[in-house]
Write a structure and sequence with these properties.
This protein is mainly α.
């Protein structure tokens, strides 16, 4: 049973409470509290959660949501069978996956796994087929159909060239068809025995075992020049420094060349975003294989294998399983709960009784260092991250406290505090349902204080796990790519880096493992900077300052901010009618020419008129009417060239759209000519070391290859490869792609080079 769509929106609920006329009374009382325990306890004493009317109904009903259903599993299995008969094998495999996720009994799971193995076999995914066959057997696959699995397994092993394994499986098949379990009769038996004879012949013809490298297995890189003895997830080329002005930060302890790996870190805790539940493993965040499996209790999440499923259940999912809808509503605060579950209750109780046994000293300069003087991937490092509660607005602090209280109720309702014999009644009391609130046990309230502490930390210290994907509208423009957040994590070592709008590093991920590499040479003694989001190539100084001040509570004094940069203005400027320079407001930045307000208004009007033509061209392109789209887009470009500055972003987007039209018509050479212009724009706007520029080079190289302009393709691919290898570890998908493209271009050039 699925959760009702409108069961309740947590953020909307606490916004409504904050807007109540008496909220000022709450805030004035709230400001006097100095500890997180007191703040959370205040929420319960004032029964503020009772004002969220849908909460009791939620906790009563959530146990029945997202449960297994044999009926639903059967519907999906029948869909899969229909697709299979139509030879739509990918649709069939997807339907069998849904059937597996919803199946209540092992036999239903085994049949759907067996069916999925057949679809995967027909897709040529023989290794995946074998995985599902093994799972089907483990789930008590019906004996009367076992001959199908054994024959399919033998055939898959033959396809993979695994001679010894194929021989062993064929022997099992031969024994089975001679046993009483083999129940086929008549023509069906004869037909199957012909298939067995054919497998025997294919097995005998198999000469040698073939092997192929599995490029899906990504190697975790090592840090540059070895592991740091203090900061254990970092390179010993960096050192941890502390000053009153900058707090904790990382410095280069030696010269560090561009492309060096400085940090390789697994998160202390991380949470996959709901939008990616169907595409990524709930535990390790790797893209799901063709053989995903689900939770044994709910239908909400998927895993890449049994190891991830078991690890997730033991660590956190057995508590979270019933409440995921609620956690989606609380947003990033879900990670606060995940931190608590990862740390384990027994440890937290011991930690709170005597923090000092886990620390090096009481000195604030040693925050985060454990008792051995090491900054590692531990709860101590997480606990000592900055909370900024002293600079948090009281209203925000009230809302964070309500969220912490809600998460504490959830833990209580889930039986997390196993020493308590009255979890359900205590949870009801905390929601304000049983008259006066009970005295909340100290061991429960202590965890509430930690939940709030981590919520406050996450505002400034949460780290996005991202992947590069095409952005909205990317079917019609090649520049529109973006880093998409798939998960939110806490990386204590990465949190040591301060911000710069022109950062030293770039982050990438191998699953949930953060890999930090330098994008420039770093002299000895220079600080290692991250970018918290606002980048000087993508955002004006005023915007960056506003974001950093509101979220991170500091005024940025990095080089671009201190220089008062005016970068990016030309990318949205009109053209000066006198010199074709940048028209800023009513005057030209280059020649000083002044224009009237009416002139500026006319420019805006022309921009709106051409935008309508641009939108029409984009719609035609979406309808695959590329010839008509080209006419509209070229006309729009011609008109805009009359009044837009030459570096205006919209001109670059038009070049992209025109390039895509030509590519879809098969005229890759003309497409490349236009892409050269948009790539130049990416270099100017984002910089020649940026991921955006590298990605556009990759697009251009692919089009040049299709245009059979192999020498140009090789030159562009060389540039792209140099950027990707400096940004990403070996084995990264983009590194592999550009390497393959270079090799293909080189092979295409070789015959020409030999005859020249």
């Amino acid at each position: 049973m699925a959760a009702p769509i409108d069961f309740g929106n947590w953020q909307k609920s606490i916004d409504n409470i904050a807007e109540e006329s008496e909220s000022s009374k709450y805030i004035s009382s709230f400001e006097v509290f100095k500890t997180n325990n007191d703040r959370v306890n205040y929420i319960f004493q004032k029964k503020l959660l009772k004002k969220v009317e849908w909460l009791p109904a939620y906790f009563t009903s959530c146990k029945s949501w997202h449960g297994k259903s044999s009926e639903v599993a059967r519907v999906w299995k029948n869909k899969g069978n229909k697709y299979f008969q139509q030879k739509k094998y990918q649709d069939a495999a997807n339907s069998y996956t849904e059937s597996c996720l919803n199946a209540e009994v092992k036999e239903d799971v085994s049949v759907s796994l067996g069916n999925r193995s057949a679809a995967l076999f027909h897709l040529g995914l023989y290794k995946d087929c074998l995985i599902d066959i093994s799972r089907a057997v483990e789930h008590d696959f019906p004996p009367e159909s076992m001959h199908k699995l054994l024959a399919r397994k033998t055939s898959a092993l033959i396809k993979l060239g695994q001679k010894q394994e194929a021989e062993e499986c064929f022997q099992q098949l031969s024994s089975f068809v001679q046993s009483e379990s083999f129940s086929l009769q008549g023509s069906r038996r004869e037909e199957f025995m012909k298939e067995v004879d054919q497998l025997k012949k294919l097995k005998q013809e198999l000469k040698e075992e073939r092997s192929s490298q599995d490029r899906s297995l990504k190697e975790i890189p090592s840090v540059y020049v070895g592991i740091n003895p203090i900061v254990r997830q970092a390179s010993k080329a960096v050192s941890l420094s502390v000053t009153p002005e900058k707090g904790r930060h990382l410095l280069a302890s030696r010269f560090i060349p561009k492309g060096s790996t400085l940090i390789v870190e697994r998160p202390f805790a991380a949470v996959l975003l709901p939008d990616h539940y169907q595409t990524h493993c709930h535990h390790c965040f790797s893209p799901l294989p063709h053989t995903p499996i689900g939770c044994e209790q709910c239908t909400s999440v998927r895993f890449c294998n049994e190891s991830c499923r078991e690890a997730a259940w033991d660590l956190y999912h057995q508590i979270e399983c019933r409440y995921l809808d609620l956690f989606h509503s609380v947003g990033i605060a879900h990670l606060s709960l995940r931190i608590i579950l990862t740390a384990k209750l027994n440890f937290l109780e011991e930690f709170l009784r005597d923090e000092q046994q886990y620390r090096l000293s009481d000195d604030p300069l040693t925050r985060g260092l454990n008792s051995e003087g090491v900054y590692d991937r531990s709860y101590v490092a997480v606990y000592d991250l900055m909370t900024h509660e002293e600079s948090t607005e009281p209203l925000d602090l009230l809302q964070y406290s309500m969220t912490g209280a809600l998460l504490l109720v959830t833990l209580t309702h889930a039986g997390y505090f196993n020493k308590l014999s009255c979890s359900d009644s205590l949870a009801a009391s905390m929601l304000g349902e049983n008259g006066d609130i009970q005295q909340i046990p100290s061991e429960v309230l202590n965890i509430g204080g930690l939940l709030l502490r981590h919520i406050l930390q996450l505002v400034c210290n949460a780290h996005a796990i991202t992947t590069l994907q095409a952005g909205p509208g990317s079917d019609s423009r090649t520049l529109d790519t973006e880093q998409v957040r798939i998960a939110t994590a806490i990386y204590p070592t990465a949190s040591l880096m301060n911000h710069s709008c022109d950062p030293t590093i770039i982050s990438s991920f191998v699953g949930d493992v953060l890999v930090v590499r330098t994008v420039k040479d770093v002299p000895k003694g220079e600080e290692i900077f991250n970018c918290y989001g606002p980048h000087c190539c993508r955002m004006r100084r005023e915007e960056r300052q506003e974001i950093l001040k509101s979220q991170y509570h500091f005024v940025c004094l990095c080089a671009p901010c201190s220089a008062g940069d005016v970068i990016n203005e030309r990318f949205g400027a009109y053209k000066c009618p006198a010199c074709a320079g940048i028209l800023s407001g009513s005057s030209c930045q280059e020649c000083g020419h002044l224009v009237s307000d009416q002139f500026v208004e006319n420019l805006k009007k022309r921009m709106n008129e051409t935008q309508e033509k641009c939108d029409a061209g984009m719609k035609l392109m979406a309808l695959q009417k590329f010839e008509d789209a080209l006419v509209a887009l070229k006309k729009c470009k011609k008109e805009r060239l009359e009044f837009l500055y030459k570096d205006h972003r919209d001109l670059a987007l038009l070049e992209d759209a025109i390039a895509r039209c030509y590519a879809n018509q098969g005229d890759f050479s003309k497409s490349a000519d236009h892409l050269f212009k948009s790539v130049k724009f990416a270099e100017q706007m984002y910089g020649n070391k940026s991921i955006e520029y590298a990605h556009e080079l990759m697009k251009l190289a692919e089009v040049l290859f299709n245009a059979e302009r192999f020498r140009e393709c090789l030159g562009v691919a060389d540039q792209c490869q140099g950027l990707f290898t400096s940004m990403y570890p070996p084995g990264h998908e983009l590194v592999d792609q550009v390497t393959d493209l270079r090799e293909a271009a080189q092979l295409a050039l070789n015959p020409m080079m030999q005859t020249s």
